[in-house]
Specification:
- By secondary structure, the chain is mainly β.
- The chain is 6% helix and 48% strand.
- The protein has a single domain, classed as Jelly Rolls (Sandwich).
- It has helices spanning 59-62, 271-282, and strands at residues 16-20, 23-27, 31-37, 48-56, 66-71, 74-82, 85-89, 94-97, 102-106, 111-117, 124-132, 143-147, 153-156, 162-167, 186-192, 197-201, 207-214, 216-219, 222-225, 229-232, 237-241, 246-253, 261-263, 266-268.
- Strand 23 (261-263) and strand 24 (266-268) form a beta hairpin.
- The longest helix has 12 residues, at 271-282.
- Residues 1-7 have low confidence and may be disordered.
- The protein binds manganese (II) ion (MN).
- Manganese (II) ion (MN) is lined by residues 66, 69, 71, 76, 113, 115.
């Protein structure tokens, strides 16, 4: 479909309802990052609780990493563009996420793990997205879906468009390896040549956002530049064009519409559940 096509039903095309650049933050043992979702400006976008971008070629910004810490009640999705990150948990699971690789971790009832840069220098760049779990699954057994770059689905179009599909399915039928029935997420890493147009249908009712990694996109007359997050409103289709070569993340998911009570690495539905999580953590029950 062309952006200029008269056949477009504008009621179905999504517009941006908010644009933000996130705020500088520090987490773990002092890793400098940008918190794009999960800050004072954008508290959350149900079911997405947090989006962090870490990007630095200064080892002092990242070498301290994220030493052992717990999670309960949600999922963490780590996607690396540059650099390497070693993860290790208290159940004996260990591995290295390399460029283009993704780890979708369902923390469920609880896991203790560390996430440490494996490199001593060079560029480390990537994202961590926190995806909420429904009340019915917050205490599920922890689980991993982990895929190196070569197992992330790749769609290459005639106009030079390249789509790395982590989860969900493109309009041309390329399906990502991550399966998630809780929030049915779409997670695409899209690269467009200058002048290209792109469309992607989104399940009605799912919340969606775009994060521009490089370049610039035009969405419904609005321009979004590198390092900006755009939140989409209602509709069933995303349409955008690239005035210059660009790369962006396009993410969507089913909102849970449940109460959210957060306390650091614990995200539950009630204060009592948070108290229980803290108690379990301190008594070594993770
Ligand atoms: Mn973690």
């Amino acid at each position: 479909m062309s952006l200029t096509s008269a056949a477009i039903d504008n009621n179905r095309v999504k517009e941006l309802i908010a644009v933000t650049s996130g705020v500088p933050a520090s987490d773990g043992a002092g890793v400098k990052l940008t918190r794009i979702i999960g800050n004072a400006e954008v508290d959350m976008l149900d079911p997405f609780l947090m989006l962090d971008c870490f990007e630095s070629d200064n080892p002092d910004d990242y070498l301290a990493g994220f030493p052992t810490h717990p999670h309960r009640g949600f999922e963490t999705v780590t996607y690396l563009l540059n650099g390497r990150m070693r993860h290790k948990d208290n159940q004996g699971n260990e591995g290295v996420i390399a460029p283009g690789g993704v780890q979708w971790m369902t923390a469920g009832k609880g896991i203790m793990h560390s996430e440490m840069p494996e490199q001593q220098d060079g560029l480390l760049k990537g994202f961590q997205l926190w995806v909420n779990l429904p009340a019915s699954a917050k205490m599920t057994e922890p689980a991993y879906q982990e895929f190196p770059a070569e197992q992330v689905a790749l769609e290459q179009r005639d106009d030079g468009t390249v789509i790395r599909v982590i989860s969900g399915v493109t309009d041309r039928g390329t399906r990502g390896p991550v399966v998630n029935h809780y929030t049915q997420p779409t997670y695409l890493d899209v690269s467009l040549k200058s002048g290209a147009e792109f469309s992607q249908s989104i399940t009605n009712g799912h919340n969606s956002f775009i994060y521009v990694i490089e370049g610039q996109v035009q969405i419904a007359g609005r321009s979004l530049r590198a390092k900006q997050l755009g939140i989409f409103g209602e509709g069933e289709e995303i349409l955008l064009s690239a005035p210059a070569a660009t790369r962006f993340l396009l993410v969507a998911g089913k909102p849970l519409n449940e109460p959210v009570v957060r306390h650091g690495p614990f995200v539950m539905n009630t204060q009592a559940q948070i108290r229980q999580a803290v108690e379990d953590y301190h008594s070594g029950n993770f």
